[in-house]
């Protein structure tokens, strides 16, 4: 299932969150802060987590809804919106260089 989201293992998830935090530096976007738990942070369509519970990945995919606990559920919900208008409405797009 990690391959579905482009990651090989949980270490890659931690590296991806660190990359977003330290290299990409998305102003105004909240990222997962604790790499040792599976709390999901959703901010302007960016979905991050510290760890993924591999036992619930398949069942998470079935529940596509905002506010669900699983990473896959939240990720699928954000993708299902097709666009994140909050970024433009809150002026986030003006803070990011294109």
UniProtKB/TrEMBL annotation:
The record ties this protein, via InterPro entries, to:
Class_I_gatase-like
Name by which UniProt lists this protein: Uncharacterized protein
What is the species of this protein? Cerrena zonata
């Amino acid at each position: 299932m990690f391959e579905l989201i482009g990651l090989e293992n949980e270490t890659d998830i931690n590296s991806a969150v660190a990359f977003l935090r330290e290299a990409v530096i998305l102003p105004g976007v909240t990222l997962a802060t604790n790499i040792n738990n599976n709390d999901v942070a959703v901010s302007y369509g960016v979905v991050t987590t510290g760890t993924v519970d591999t036992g619930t990945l398949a069942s998470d995919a079935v529940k596509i809804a905002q506010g669900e606990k699983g990473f896959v559920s939240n990720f699928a919900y954000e993708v299902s919106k097709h666009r994140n208008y909050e970024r433009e409405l809150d002026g986030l797009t003006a803070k990011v260089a294109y």
